[in-house]
Structures are given as C-alpha cells and as structure tokens.
Design goal:
about 5% strand; about 325 residues; alpha/beta; 13 helices
C-alpha cells in the first residue's frame, strides 16, 4: 500500500516533491526484493534495529568515502561536518584541495552514474545541493587564505579574465560556482553573471571587461539550444573569445556537432569543474604557438566527432 501511494503521487502529480519522495523510498528498500513484496533494508535480518544499523554503517567509512556517499545519495545531514573533517585532517594542505579532491571525486561518480542512466535529473539536483553546501562551508577559508597571501587580484596581476554564466532559462548554478571558485584560486579574475543570463548580457559584459574566455553553464536540456544561440550571436558580433561549455546535459559530441560549426573561435567542452583550470590556462597561454596547437588539436577532435556522428546517421538510413 505504501508503494502504491508513492506511485500514485508521481503518476497523478499529487504533490510537488513526489519524485524525490519516490526516490527516497526506493533507496530504503532491499535491492533484490520484488515489487509485489517490497522490504526495507535490513528488516529481514533482525528488524528495525538492524535496518538502522545497516543504514548508518557508511558513517564508519573514511571521510572521503563518506563525502562521496553523501553526494551520490543526496544526503546533506553530515556533509558540512565531513567537509570540515577533511579540511582539518592535515591530508589536504589547502581548502581548495578538498574541493578538487574528495568533493570532485564524489561528483565525478554522480556524473558517471547520470551518464550511464543509473541516476536521474532530480537525484543529480539533490547531489548538486549537497555539493553547494560543502563548497559554501569552504569558501570563507579559501577567501581568508587568499587575503593572508595578499590575493587581491588586479587587472595587471591576474592570469586572465573569465566571464561565466548559467544561460537563459536555467537556474542551476552549482557547477558554475565551483568553476568560479577553482579558477579564482588559480589567479583568474572571474566575472560571475549568475543564472538565467541572456546572451546579450554575456556578450556585452565580455566586451566591457575584455574577457579572455567566456564560460557557459547549464543543467537542463533546453540550455543546449541557448548555448548554440550564444555562439551564433558571438559569431555575428565578430567576438572570437574562446568559449567554454559545461554542465550535466552538455557533451563533447553536442559541442562538436551543434556549437563548434556556428562559431569560428575556439570552443571547448569541459567534462567537470576540476578540469576547467588546465583548459582555461591553455586558452590564455602567453606562448602563442602552444596556445594555437591546443586550439587546433581540439578543433581536429571535434571535426572527427562530427564525421563520426554524421556517418552514424547515414548508417541508420
């Protein structure tokens, strides 16, 4: 009867959080139990006490594993305490290393599961909220570290100017915020335009601040079309600033097939926030030859992906 209630809530749209309630209920069941005989985890062994013990056993794991578990399962109850434990344990020299290490490792697992169809968008959003809490806990430590190091960045001293925004129609900002934090800690001046950002504001800001790179972020599928629009508008304006593409629904294939052909400047898809630093550094490399070699290599990869994509379409005919 309990399962029936959850199913009907989803099918009849009886409450706003029906999907999340269904996912939480599903996570509490024995994986091998039948739909006609659902059973809570641990109940078959020794009742509710065993179920609780089994459910809490992950709290005995090393801190990195606990952080990953919280991210994958979307549990925010312990994430601040675990993040602080990781920061203070001495294993990670800087607060940023906690983001680049266990937190990004956990989000990479989420990304892999999402890509394999084993996690769905509502679960990814829950994971992103947990990540946001963890990063939010670390940001004051990162800012204090930069202050003590004399880290006030001026136009003359920074490694480059990076404009980043979540595109119009999309309110998700966790990945964007992580990129902003990571690049900021690598001496880039980051101009964060927030969420739901129209293409004209992105381009006008990029021109105004003389951006070296523009980053576009999005989580939902319609954002892919909006990114294509931004690229087309950049081409129309003759703005050849390198374009960085990222977000849960984005992919190297989509970037190669839909975005790169409408923009003659450099376009690079970044799989996750932790990999944004070497890509952006390569795009602003003072050595023009090395920078051009990187851009040409990416362009060649995307050309091959387009050929592969269109060959696949021909095979289906």
């Amino acid at each position: 009867k309990e399962l029936l209630e959850y199913v009907e809530d989803v099918l009849l749209n009886r409450c706003e959080n029906a999907t999340e309630r269904m996912l939480e209920f599903a996570a509490s069941l024995e994986p091998k139990c039948k739909p006609t005989a659902v059973r809570r985890k641990g109940v078959a062994d020794s009742g509710a006490g065993a179920a609780k013990k089994a459910g809490d056993s992950w709290r005995d794991l090393p801190v990195e594993k606990r952080i990953a578990h919280s991210l994958v399962k979307g549990i925010d109850e312990f994430i601040v305490a675990d993040t602080e434990e990781a920061r203070a344990c001495g294993k990670y020299v800087k607060p940023l290393h906690v983001i680049e290490g266990p937190l990004m490792d956990g989000m990479n697992v989420v990304g892999d599961l999402f890509g394999a169809g084993k996690m769905f968008l509502p679960q990814v959003i829950k994971s992103a909220r947990v990540m946001k809490r963890a990063v939010g806990h670390l940001i004051p430590y990162i800012e204090e570290e930069k202050r003590l190091a004399g880290g006030d960045m001026t136009v003359e001293s920074n490694a480059g100017v990076f404009v980043i925004a979540t595109v119009k129609g999309d309110v998700h900002d966790i990945g964007k915020n992580i990129v902003a934090v990571v690049l900021g800690c690598n001496n880039f001046k980051v101009i964060d335009l927030g969420v739901m950002t129209p293409w004209d504001k992105i381009l006008d800001t990029a021109v105004e601040v003389k951006a070296d790179v523009i980053g576009l972020s999005g989580l939902i599928t319609p954002s892919l079309d909006e990114m294509v629009t931004v690229a087309k508008k950049m081409e129309e304006r003759g703005l050849r600033v390198p374009l960085l593409i990222g977000g849960a629904t984005t992919s190297k294939m989509h970037t190669a097939v839909k975005i790169a052909p409408v923009f003659s400047g450099p376009v690079v898809h970044v799989l996750d926030a932790s990999r944004s630093v070497p890509v952006v550094q390569a795009l602003v490399d003072k050595n023009q030859k090395q920078r051009q070699e990187f851009v040409d290599e990416i362009a060649e990869q995307y050309s091959e992906l387009r050929e592969e994509f269109y060959a696949g379409l021909e095979d289906r005919k």
